[in-house]
Amino acid sequence: MKNSSRPPVRYRLLVGATIVPLLLWPWLLSVLPVADGDDTMRLLLLCLPAYVLLSCYVAYRTRRERPEVSWVLLALCWVSYAMLAMLAAVALRA
Q1: Cβ contacts of residue 18 below 8 Å, gap of 6+?
Q2: Quick one: pLDDT band at residue 9, thresholds 50, 70, 90?
Q3: How far, in Å, CA of 34 to CA of 70, rounded?
Q4: What are the b/e assignments for 19-30, b being 16+ CB within 10 Å?
Q5: With contact defined as beta carbons under 8 Å apart, do 58 and 24 qualify?
Q6: In sequence order, which residues have a C-beta less than 8 Å from that of residue 56 and are 6 or more positions away?
Q7: What integer pLDDT is reported at residue 78 of this predicted model?
Q8: What is the rounded CA–CA span in Å between residue 1 and residue 77?
Q9: Does the pTM of the predicted model rise above 0.70?
Q10: Which is nearest to 49 in space by CA: 32, 73, 24, 69?
Q11: Residue in 40, 48, 57, 58 with CA at minimum distance from that of residue 82
Q12: For 24-73, what is each residue's pLDDT tens digit?
């Protein structure tokens, strides 16, 4: 008998794939030149893992009752990854 409360395998793989880029977080911290006076950038970089983990947890837990919320949370994680990738590209070019 299948447990209907668990999300489908595809969804669990998507949540897992959303967490995997956090493995590059130490490299991102070493590459991006965060100036001493740029506290906003430092705060954003340091809060990224907590934000992604919390968003993925909430998305996974709310999938059954509020699927739209879970998809939006995962999409925001990927948009934040894209913005940080653009930031890293600009920092590496400079």
Answers
A1: 52, 56, 74, 77, 78
A2: very high
A3: 32
A4: eebbeeeeebee
A5: no
A6: 15, 18, 19, 73, 74, 77
A7: 95
A8: 34
A9: yes
A10: 24
A11: 48
A12: 888 877 777 766 556 777 788 888 899 999 999 999 999 999 999 999 99
> Nearest to residue 59, comparing CAs of 69, 49, 50?
69
Place of tokens 């506290």: 39
Q: Which tokens sit at 25?
A: 């977080």
* Distance from C-alpha of 3 to C-alpha of 80, rounded to nearest angstrom: 33
77 vs 18: CA distance, rounded Å: 7
Q: Which of helix, strand or coil describes residue 36? A: coil
Classify 10 as helix, strand or coil. helix
